[in-house]
Amino acid sequence: MVNRIVIIGATSGIGYEVAKIYRQLGWRVGVAGRRLERLEAFREQAPEQTEIQQLD
Predict the structure, then answer these.
(1) Which of 19, 20, 50, 53 would be a feasible disulfide site paired with 10, CB 3.0-4.6 Å?
(2) Which residues in 24-46 are b (16+ Cβ under 10 Å) and which e?
């Protein structure tokens, strides 16, 4: 079983750091935020573990 989490506000600050920690722990991470370029950069680091969604 794969653990999953969705983090809103993950393009900076606490949300970004929490998403990194969960991903390092092997979780599948869904991240959402305003800045699409930051979300895409986050996904590039581990595309098999990361889903993104731009929200405003």
Answers:
(1) 19
(2) eeeebbbbbbeeeebbeebbeee
Q: Residue 51's Cα: distance from chain center in Å?
A: 7
pLDDT in tens, 3-48: 999 999 999 999 999 999 999 999 999 999 999 999 999 999 999 9
Cα(32)–Cα(54) distance, integer angstroms: 6
The 10 Å Cβ neighbour count of residue 7 is 19
Edge to edge, what strands does the sheet with 4-8 contain? 4-8, 28-33, 50-54
Separation CA 8–CA 25 (nearest Å): 18
Please, which pLDDT band fits residue 56 given cuts at 50, 70 and 90?
confident
